[in-house]
Amino acid sequence: MAIHLTKESKVLVQGMTGGEGMKHTRRMLAAGTDVVGGVNPRKAGRTVDFDDRAVPVFGSVADGIQTTGADVTVVFVPPAFARSAVVEAADAGIGLAVVITEGIPVHDSVAFTTYARRKGTRVIGPNCPGLITPGQSNAGIIPADITKPGPIGLVSKSGTLTYQLMYELRDIGFSTCVGIGGDPVVGTTHIDCLAAFQDDPDTDLVVLIGEIGGDAEERAAAYIREHVTKPVVAYIAGFTAPEGRTMGHAGAIVSGSSGTARAKKEALEAVGVRVGGTPTETARHVLAVLEAGR
Among the options 24, 107, 190, 249, which is catalytic? Predict the structure, then answer.
């Protein structure tokens, strides 16, 4: 089992023929992802060769879905075109849109995440590394060779910390790792992933990675208290950050005690979550909890 992405997922890549799209499509294919097509109106009808696989290019997401049955799209288009790309995918009925693009204006992110939700399309991102179900499928830019399948679910605001915890816990492995993105507006939240991992029979423990700014982690703590029975271990980036200054890819601002790493740590610990002071300590907490549960 997994959440949101499995070996059955059929993936389109919007922006596949660009430099980043080409590079990461090749990596996704190497990880076993069923990439069934790219989308570029100017190059429709062509195919792109990736080692031993020729991937067709469609003129629209709707054409790609009609021809291949795709249910996931990964968006590598420039920021100015991201809103229209997601709206097109939602209009076509795609189930999951993974928006890798960074630098998207906040008002565009608000518009397309709201529109997609209304259309029944889940958005992961923007400004995210995507998600991976090790051994099954990889949609985005997460390295596929640093971990293996296992019982840990991971949800993270930070791409780099996603990779680090995957590597730290590589001997145990993961059900699914989801990088939700660190922008002020994202389509999928910590809470969304906690709910999905709670329902996944092959996830025994959840790692939650947050960062300073906003109140997403405090809201996640409240959700954990009421709805999550599986153990959760967390790491919050930003304990040494100065107050009153905008920082990080989230544009996070800390004012007084609100949004600080300490406040988030206290909120999570109050509901029974172990919070590591470093990624390595967080990994040690995970190992201890898993060992205690055996």
Answer: 249
